[in-house]
Amino acid sequence: MKLKLVGGDSAGVVTAYYMCTENGAGPTRDELDFEFLGNRTGEPYLIQTNIYKNGTGNREMRHMLWFDPTEEFHTYSILWNNLQIVFFVDKVAIRVHKNNGEPNNFFPNEKPMYLFSSIWNADDWATRGGLEKTDWKKAPFVSSYKDFTVEACQWEDPYPACVSTTTKYWWDQYDAWHLSDEQKMDYAWVQRNLVIYDYCKDTERFPALPVECKLSPWD
User: Fold this and answer.
1) How far apart, in whole angstroms, are the C-alpha atoms of residue 119 and residue 132?
2) Dmax of the chain from CA atoms?
3) Among this protein's residues, is 60 annotated catalytic?
4) N- to C-terminal Cα separation, the chain
5) Is residue 219 part of a domain?
6) Which residues form the domain of 193?
7) Mean pLDDT throughout 23-35?
8) Any idea what the CATH number is for the domain that residue 86 is in?
9) What pLDDT, in 10s, does the model give residues 1-23?
10) Residue 75 and residue 1: Cα distance in Å, rounded?
11) How many CA atoms lie within 13 A of 6 on its CB side?
12) Which residues form the active site (predicted)?
């Protein structure tokens, strides 16, 4: 999807572009999130990503961007197969979430997902932890979308064969199972320069780090 985000004073406003199971916000949902956190004029936009399995999230990462997302359209993509989930911004991998190939509670791969988008008031947490409130005098708040594309396996109950690794589709072939050398270089640059928060490094919040944090994004 190409998005252009709310310009000017967008404090407290969140634009979301995400995948979610059909029960939406239900207690056992799976979900892959792009959340764009608004700002006071002149402050940088932040992207928050999150991953839910069976209703459990708490896998937040936050990144700065290397451009102003309110000036032009930029492309935001999710690659999801049975081996990895990758969040891309303009084809640059900003987050990699690996599967260990064993039954687990961190990698969503057992339910179909739909695509959603929304824009909503989150001034209790979105901008400086809720210190900056939405200025409703600046409304309406508008995010713009264009050039949406999707390539996917259509879900067929009870469990479609294409969910398993079959190599039939481009997104389920070797080149999509791992980052390329060029993607690894971009990803390393992002990790060094743009990561604001990574739950896998939050030992105060998680004294025993989640299992998935021990998996290498480079494999």
Assistant:
1) 17
2) 53
3) no
4) 27
5) no
6) 2-214
7) 88
8) 2.60.120.200
9) 999 999 999 999 999 999 999 76
10) 6
11) 27
12) 31, 35
